[in-house]
């Protein structure tokens, strides 16, 4: 045997060894910067017409990957995340109802009921503050709350959730693959947020008309409604921008007629100006998300428009942009036609999983 050659190949493998160690060292440096996750396959979101670039809204420490979105989808539809395996996120955010549940207030585990209506999980990418009162500052932070909510999914603690999911071998393997760790509540939040970030809605009839893509997608009535929405109706003072929301909190008076006012944003800020103020919801897909308002009091868009026309419900903290509009019947009809024109695409691609990790 040629000893010289052997020594050489030894040296070569030593060099390769160093190179490999170096790559790993660099790799782990990079990993630390992105929260220690293995790379994964990038998931590139293609925003429908009129929506802003999604990349700007994805937090650096939770990059969107195909594997993570897939994991988030499984978790979103999996009833085993609840205390008695009966309720999943999708129970109240049903894909077929544009991720709402069609009820004034939602029903969770043991048929417990909460006091607020389930908002859509669509276009959450574009918001930071989540919930009607904005009490959570990120989608990651929001996503793990329903699981330990007494009414919604009823798990006793986040530790108990991580332990339960970790006990399912299939999930343990998926978390290792996506996050390089056992199941953690942090990972559950990141995966659920990532899945929800893929639920978009744009390219509606209103967008196509407004952007000059097509003149006949929005009816003439809807076109007149758009004009009222922007001018006489003053709607854009709050439902502004590409997602039809200013992301701020306003008091319209919802609840002041019931004797049990939900204090809304005030409970978060303790600031008097926030008494019974709620987040301006997006109006995209609004014809699919009845009933309306945080207490789900209105079954139809016409009732919502009547409410605004009458100036909401007066109270000492009502927003000054809510005024009596005295819309005519025709104007109300036009406004409803406009709101109906806000249904679009970007969320219909999801099909509920038929099998879950075992
Ligand atoms: C029992 C019904 C129910 C279940 C189960 C449920 N939700 Fe919700 N969801 C609601 C209600 C009601 C609200 C509004 C609560 C509030 O604002 O105080 C809400 C709010 C939200 C919001 C905020 C939307 C916005 O516009 O601010 C998101 C996002 C969300 N849920 C996602 C989830 C995820 C993810 C899960 C599963 C981990 C889940 N929900 C489970 C009923 C439910
Ligand atoms: C002062 C800010 C403001 C103005 C002006 C305003 N809105 Fe709203 N809108 C809100 C807020 C805040 C809510 C949620 C209120 C609540 O539940 O207490 C809301 C809720 C809605 C909803 C129900 C959406 C859902 O998912 O439940 C519709 C529809 C709506 N607005 C349409 C309009 C139209 C049409 C106009 C103009 C006539 C208008 N808004 C003017 C702030 C405003």
Characterise this structure:
By secondary structure, the protein is mostly helical. The protein folds into two domains: 144 residues, Cytochrome Bc1 Complex, Chain D, domain 2 (Orthogonal Bundle), CATH 1.10.760; 136 residues, Cytochrome Bc1 Complex, Chain D, domain 2 (Orthogonal Bundle), CATH 1.10.760. Helix content is 35%, strand content 1%. It is built from twelve helices and two strands; from the N terminus they run αααααααααβαβαα. The protein has a two-stranded antiparallel ribbon. Helix 2 crosses helix 7. It is globular and about 60 Å long. The N terminus is likely disordered. The site of one heme C has 28 residues, from helix 11 and helix 12.
CATH class of the largest domain: Mainly Alpha
Question: What's the average pLDDT?
Answer: 91
Helix content percent band = 25-40%
User: What form results from the Cα inertia axes?
Assistant: globular
Low-confidence stretches: 1-34
Strand order of the largest sheet: 1-2
Compute the gyration radius: what is it? 25 Å
How would you briefly describe this protein structure?
The chain has helices at residues 3-33, 66-77, 89-92, 139-143, 158-166, 169-179, 185-197, 205-210, 220-230, 266-269, 301-309, 329-340, and strands at 249-250, 278-279. With 358 residues, it is an all-alpha fold.
């Amino acid at each position: 045997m040629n000893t010289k050659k052997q020594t050489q190949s030894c040296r070569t493998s030593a060099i390769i060894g160093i190179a490999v160690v170096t790559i790993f060292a660099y790799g782990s440096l990079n990993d630390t910067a992105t929260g220690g996750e293995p790379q994964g396959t990038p998931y590139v979101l293609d925003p429908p017409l009129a929506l802003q670039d999604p990349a700007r809204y994805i937090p650096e420490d939770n990059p969107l990957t195909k594997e993570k979105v897939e994991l988030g989808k499984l978790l979103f539809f999996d009833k085993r995340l609840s205390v008695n395996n009966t309720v999943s996120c999708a129970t109240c955010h049903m894909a077929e109802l544009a991720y709402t549940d069609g009820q004034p207030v939602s029903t969770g585990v043991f048929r417990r009921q909460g006091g607020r209506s389930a908002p859509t999980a669509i276009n959450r990418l574009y918001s930071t503050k989540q919930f009607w009162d904005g009490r959570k500052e990120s989608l990651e932070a929001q996503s793990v709350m329903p699981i330990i909510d007494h009414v919604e999914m009823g798990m006793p603690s986040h530790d108990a959730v991580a332990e339960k999911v970790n006990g399912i071998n299939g999930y343990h393997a998926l978390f290792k693959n996506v996050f390089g760790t056992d199941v953690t509540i942090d990972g559950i939040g990141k995966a659920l947020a990532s899945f929800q970030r893929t639920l978009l809605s744009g390219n509606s009839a209103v967008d196509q008309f407004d952007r000059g893509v097509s003149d006949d997608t929005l009816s003439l009535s809807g076109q007149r409604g758009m004009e009222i929405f922007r001018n006489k109706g003053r709607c854009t003072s709050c439902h502004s921008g590409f997602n039809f929301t200013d992301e701020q909190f306003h008091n319209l008076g919802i609840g002041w007629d019931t004797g049990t006012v939900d204090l809304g944003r005030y409970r978060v800020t303790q600031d008097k100006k926030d008494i019974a103020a709620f987040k301006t919801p997006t109006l995209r897909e609004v014809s699919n998300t009845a009933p309306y308002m945080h207490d789900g009091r209105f079954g139809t868009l016409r009732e919502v428009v009547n409410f605004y026309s009458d100036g909401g419900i007066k109270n000492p903290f009502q927003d000054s942009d809510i005024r009596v509009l005295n819309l005519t019947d025709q104007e109300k009809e036009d406004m409803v036609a406009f709101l109906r024109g806000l249904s679009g695409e970007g969320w219909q691609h999801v099909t509920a999983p038929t099998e879950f990790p075992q």
